[in-house]
Amino acid sequence: MAFLSMPCPYCEQSQTQVIEALWDDHYKTVRRYRVCPKCNYKWSTVEIDHDQARNLERQSLPSWREEKT
Hints:
This protein is of the alpha+beta class. The chain is built from two helices and four strands, in the order E-E-E-E-H-H.
C-alpha cells in the first residue's frame, strides 16, 4: 500500500493509504478507497480528468442558459 499526502478528513493525519483503486471507463474516473493509519477512518475519493470535469459541468448547465448565448 502506498502512502499519499492526502490528509485524513477525520483526524487530519497527513499521510494516508490507498487500499484500492478502481478505474471507470465510462466516466473516465478513478475511485480510490483510502484508510488513515492513525485513526483507521475509511473513505473514498473520486478523481476525474480536467477535460471530463468541464464536459460534466457543461452537461449540468440549465438549458435556459444555453439559449441566451
